[in-house]
Amino acid sequence: MEKDKTVKEKKVIGSVIKAIEVIEFIANSKGEVGVTEISKGLNYGVSATYHLLNTLKECNIIVQDRKTKKFKLGLKLWQIGMMAYEQNHLSIIMKPYLRKLKELTGETANLTIMDNNQIVYIAQEESDRLVKMFTKTGATAPLHCTAAGKIFLAYKPEEIRNSIMDRIELTKFTDNTIVNRDELIKELQEIRKNGYAFDNEERELGVSCIGSPIFDLNDETIACITISGPTARFTDENKKKWIKDVVQIAKEATNYLKTIN
């Protein structure tokens, strides 16, 4: 029995995981970073970090400044990212719906998926307004304090939702962030009943968001479509209209997905 369990265990290569963590560390840094900074940030030995960096540099994933000896991401990684984007059919298929939602509301429209217990922005139509919200494609955000994240949690089966909530931390970002599990579950139940979710300055002060789910052929939440913008524009009157717009566009996107699958 113990032997069968061992056979079924996933085999992973630690050095590959560390290399990816190095790439992510460099990507999240504001500028170029050196070996010592990376090793301290990841709690790796300097020597091991140096070898990882050399390997990544050899593969053209990162580049090193000749003068400062510091590192930044290379163009090859950008090329891989663009290929990944092109292969992500969902982000391409949903573009017309994002544009339509932006035109209806005047606010930035976002498309997110759930990955590794967080939301990931995979496409966006930026608002034409002077003051607007903008999130880089590929950026991530927590589940409990975002409209999209709460949508994904709300539409998970109870057992799976509870398992996810056992693993995530309900970090407090603003005074509006829900950090009580029972309170969050109560809101998730309301979200599932209503078909939409809010982010009322729960992730960042001055920023609000409305989201609604997009379902696949099996009626599982495959993505979430949202609008985000300055809280000052999210008046009661606008919110009443925008809720209908977001829910309607999400339904149209869902219906289209079901016709092509």
Q: Major sheet, described briefly?
A: 6 strands, antiparallel
Strand order in the sheet with the most strands: 5-4-3-8-7-6
Name the average pLDDT: 91
Low-confidence stretches: 1-8
Outline type: globular
Short description:
The protein has about 260 residues and is α+β, with helices and mostly antiparallel strands. The protein has helices at about 1-10, 15-30, 35-40, 45-60, 75-85, 90-95, 95-105, 145-155, 160-165, 180-195, 235-260, and strands at about 60-65, 70-75, 110-115, 120-125, 140, 195-200, 205-215, 220-230.
Please explain how this structure is put together:
With 261 residues, this protein is of the alpha+beta class. The protein folds into 2 domains: 11-79, Winged helix-like DNA-binding domain superfamily/Winged helix DNA-binding domain (Arc Repressor Mutant, subunit A, Orthogonal Bundle); 88-260, Beta-Lactamase (2-Layer Sandwich), CATH 3.30.450. The chain contains 11 helices and 8 strands. Strands 5-4-3-8-7-6 form a 6-stranded antiparallel β-sheet. Helix 2 (14-28) crosses helix 4 and helix 3 (35-42) packs across helix 4.
